[in-house]
Amino acid sequence: MLRPDGHWSLMVVNKDHDNPHQVRIVFHDDSSNTGHSFIGPVTIISFGKAQYQWHPARKNGYADPDDPPVTSTQTGGPDA
Prior knowledge:
Order of helices and strands: EEEEEE
């Protein structure tokens, strides 16, 4: 999604609760049959078990821990 500030945003959801997985993001251009990647610094925001776990208890459910997401930066590119 192209945000109003001109930056792109992409959400990736890992539905495998027990295992982390590496992903490679490639944007395919059908008109030129080429792949493109993010370039420059890419901000990664990760929200996982270490930051948030929901403990269901009907109406008394709670989160523990209830921490903010982890932010890191990685250089983009085809091999990032």
